[in-house]
Specification:
The protein has 425 residues and is α+β, with helices and mostly antiparallel strands. The protein is built from 10 helices and 19 strands. α1 packs across α4, α6 packs across α7 and α8 crosses α10. Bound molecules: zinc ion (ZN). The site of zinc ion has 5 residues, from α4.
Length: 425
């Protein structure tokens, strides 16, 4: 890429940026929480068709992915779970092919009254775009399309095949990205513009979701001493699980990718339900838990430790020792991932980033997971996670920094131009 070409591409991103923000806002308006992604995916498919991409819009079939490595168990229906994949084929394939991947699903918005403005009514203030998904990661997904638009607007076309994947299920299983692998999509590299604060993800933890069902003995509260309160027993289980969390954190020196972080392993009780009403000692309590594991810590080993921990805690309790809680897995069974054997792609992204930001590209490990693991672990493709600065993702008043988004879009555009190559239209 010559200096002239670079300047033309920069100008093309700038020229298209207002339209890019508007498109991001349009996408944020779809409340694409799990099970409700269908309309947002139809919108993405239409955007790809409009751009002349060859569109593959397909429902995820569990039977096709259930036996594959990386699959996570689910109990929800996939009747409305569609992936959208758009491909732009290069007539003269000289460069290296690329997959641009992002997820359309967003996490639940939580109590609406805790947002300054409604989560699915995007708001632009002081250089930020607010809304659920604005950061994680509809801005990144749209940036992929905007980068392709900029290349075209500047009068070029990529000289390698480019595939844009809009997937579901990233926030709970990763089965959307897995379904893309199963369908045969491969490329010489993958770029995922997750909200990575302008840094390249060097490694990510694995994640396991599990539910613990705790039983009790229901009696009238008048005789509470004769019953067993399942909700209060749950606190004993939760305390034991947090002890396991600290035990795993204490092992961090064995896992170099995450050893520098103060607290790489986080365990969260994300949901609790139990009891029937206030005047009966509750006979049941269910907790839903998310815990991280290190890269190279096996999912099966971690599950065994979780179950052992709960069994140990139960042994210390008169009722639970004969009525052990039941653990079930439903959702993430994700391995960790370390970016390896990706020197060529990292070099190209570093150069692109430096050209835009005037500073070296930093790398950082993550205490969360992304879909990168599928490409890296099971598809043998270098998967780069790199995206804009955001705040409050998964919280209230989620927002993306628009100046950062603009620069990241430029870096992605340069990356495509260099990795895939460009020629005059
Ligand atoms: Zn995300």
């Amino acid at each position: 890429m010559s200096t002239d070409e670079a300047a033309t591409l920069i100008a093309a991103v700038d020229e298209g940026f207002e339209a890019q923000v508007a498109l991001t806002a349009d996408l944020v308006r779809f409340p694409s929480v799990r099970g409700d992604e269908r309309l947002a995916q139809e919108f993405m498919a239409a955007q790809m068709v409009k751009r002349g991409l060859e569109v593959d819009h397909y429902r995820i079939e569990l039977d096709k992915i259930r036996a594959l490595p990386g699959f996570s168990p689910v109990s929800v229906s996939y009747d409305n779970a569609f992936n959208v994949v758009g491909t732009r084929r290069a007539p003269d394939r000289r460069g290296r092919s690329l997959i641009l991947n992002g997820h359309i699903d967003v996490v639940p918005a939580g109590p609406l009254d805790m947002w300054t403005s409604p989560p699915f009514e995007p708001r632009r203030t002081d250089g930020w775009l607010f809304g659920r998904g604005a950061g994680d990661m509809k801005s990144g997904l749209v940036a992929c399309l905007a980068a392709l638009d900029a290349i075209e607007r500047a009068g070029f076309r990529p000289t390698a095949d480019i595939t844009v994947q809009s997937v579901v299920e990233e926030e709970c299983t990763g089965n959307g990205a897995l379904a893309c692998l199963e369908r045969g999509y491969r490329a010489d590299a993958v770029l995922i513009p997750e909200p990575q604060h302008e840094r390249l993800l060097s490694a990510q933890v694995g994640v396991i979701w599990f539910e613990v069902m705790i039983r009790g003995v229901p009696v009238h509260v008048a005789n509470a001493g004769q019953g067993v309160n399942a909700i209060e027993s749950a606190y004993k289980v939760i305390a034991a699980l947090h002890e396991l969390e600290e035990k795993w954190n204490a092992r961090k020196t064995h896992y170099p990718s995450h050893a520098s972080l103060p607290h790489p392993i986080n365990l969260n009780v994300g949901r609790i339900a139990g009891g029937d009403w206030a005047s009966s000692v509750p006979a049941w309590c269910a907790i839903e838990v998310r815990v991280a594991i290190y890269p190279d810590q096996r999912v099966e080993d971690a599950k065994r430790e979780i179950e052992d921990t709960i069994r140990e805690a139960s042994r210390r309790d008169a009722f639970l020792q004969n009525n052990p809680p039941i653990v079930t897995y439903n959702g993430f069974e994700a391995e960790g991932y370390v970016l390896r054997d990706a020197e060529e792609a990292v070099a190209v992204l570093s150069k692109a980033h430096e050209a835009v930001f005037g500073a070296a590209l930093d790398q950082a490990p993550s205490t969360a997971t992304t879909d990168a693991r599928f490409f890296g672990l099971y598809g043998d493709m270098p998967a780069l996670v790199y995206g804009p600065r955001t705040e409050f993702i998964h919280g209230f008043d989620e927002r993306v920094d628009l100046a950062s988004l603009r620069n990241v879009t430029k870096a992605i555009t340069f990356f495509i131009a260099d990795w895939c190559g460009i020629s005059r239209q």
